[in-house]
Amino acid sequence: MKNDVLAFEGLVERNRDDLYSFAVGITRSETEAAEIAQQSFLSAYLHLSQFRNEAEFRAHVHWIAAKLMSSSRSPPRTSPAAEGALKAPETRAPRNSRADRNCSADQQALSAELRRAIEDATDRLPERHREALLFKDVAGLSYEQIAEVSGQSTPAIKEHLHQARLSLREVIDRFYNER
Questions:
Q1: pLDDT of residue 106
Q2: Residue (of 20, 166, 165) closest to 82 by Cα position
Q3: What's the gap between Cα 57 and its chain centre?
Q4: Are 1 and 109 contacting, i.e. CB atoms less than 8 angstroms apart?
Q5: I want to staple 40 with a disulfide (CB 3.0 to 4.6 A). Which of 4, 14, 65, 123 is the partner?
Q6: In angstroms, what CA-CA distances link 179 with 54, 90, 113, 173?
Q7: By C-alpha distance, which of 34, 31, 24, 59 is closest to 44?
Q8: Interatomic CA distance for residues 33 and 72, integer angstroms
């Protein structure tokens, strides 16, 4: 029993930030996101014996969070508090010279600016497009799972996701063309 609790704590530790960011990206509320994460982890704890690996655990908590968010859907908030909705992967290259350090500092600033541009663009997406993007690309839900949670057809989900990705691609293209 003690080993189960320790294993669960480790799973929560490794997945909590990702789940919380996902929930903030959809709900636009830090309080709601924290409650959804807590309920999702409670559900996972109650079903802990059913998971064969961490990927199944991660999928379950995101699935439960998505279901909770869709069942308590409220009008979208326009608060910019959706920090971390889309996270750029961290890259760390070894630094050998002063030129490398300057280049790396420039790249980090560029990455931060690009991340802000993507987050702003994600915030401006129509709600259905933003949800499809976050459910698919952040939470990793299947099209069928997204359709079930949102009550939309799979083709509609694919269209929303396509439009969201096109919008973000335009933002990224514009970002680099203005440099």
A1: 63
A2: 20
A3: 16
A4: no
A5: 65
A6: 41, 22, 11, 10
A7: 59
A8: 12
- 117-162 pLDDT per residue, tens: 888 999 899 989 998 998 998 888 899 989 988 889 999 999 999 9
The domains of the chain, with CATH numbers, are: 2-71 (1.10.1740.10), 98-177 (1.10.10.10)
Rounded Cα distance between 179 and 171, Å, is: 13
C-alpha dihedral sign at 6, 34, 120, 173: positive
Q: Identify the three-state secondary structure at position 39.
A: helix
**Per the structure block, which two tokens stand in for 113?**
């600016």
What is the token pair recorded at 159?
């269209």
Location of structure tokens 């541009």: 117
Q: What is the pLDDT of residues 40-85, one digit of tens each?
A: 999 999 988 888 888 889 888 998 998 888 776 544 333 333 333 3
- Residue labelled with tokens 């973000």: 168
- 27 and 36 Cβ atoms separated by less than 8 Å: yes
Tokens of 137: 């690309």
Q: Are 138 and 122 in contact (CB under 8 A)?
A: no
Alpha-carbon gap, residue 36 to 175, rounded angstroms: 34
Amino acid occupying residue 158? K
